[in-house]
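Quick board copy: two proteins, each given as sequence then tokens.
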Amino acid sequence: QVQLVESGGGLVEAGGSLRLSCVASGRTFSNYAVGWFRQAPGKEREFVASLTYYADFVKGRFTFSRDNAKNTVSLQMNSLKPEDTAVYYCAAKLFIATTRARDYAYWGQGTQVTVSS
């Protein structure tokens, strides 16, 4: 089992920044790939970023980072837009990250990000 806890969400004006964190506990964290996903009201959950790949709509604005010593991954979000408003989730799976939510076995509870215009 891997437990994931996100933090760092909040309300920010368009153009602002937030930094999300995801702390993992349980099994050897270094064996797991982590992805960030988001889900807006009425929409499907969508992939945002992993260590090696970013969704087109966040390229150049979001940065994924990982610290295995602290069992933590982060998502630095800059130049936020109202359309970035969603609940953001970190998710973990063994070995290699993918963009498919169904591939991930472990999920955090999510953190709300709201970007005002």
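And the next:
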Amino acid sequence: QVQLVASGGGFVQVGDSLRLSCTASGRDFSNYHMAWFRQGTGKERKFIAAVSRNMVAFHTSSVQGRFIVSRDNNKVFLQMNSLKPEDTGVYSCAADLSMSFGDGAYWGQGTQVTVSS
């Protein structure tokens, strides 16, 4: 049974840091890309960052310079610094053979991040 379990969210103040972790289990994920997405209340899910199976990192422009995605085998991490209120949302991790993270992707349950001003 494939599972992706995310953790590390919380309630923080503007400028604080958080480190999210996601552990994937249930199969060999070495050929999978892994990513983080965020969904704010009433908003669509948005791509935040990813690490390809070749260990190349990608970040959306709004988090570049503040967030760092990393990976260790079947675990993916998101170091979030200088947090802003607009970073608030449920952060979910995903794994997919394609960087599109579409219908074939595996998803975790998400962890809530709330940044208060």
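Board note added afterward: The CA atoms of residues 22 and 36 lie 9 Å apart.
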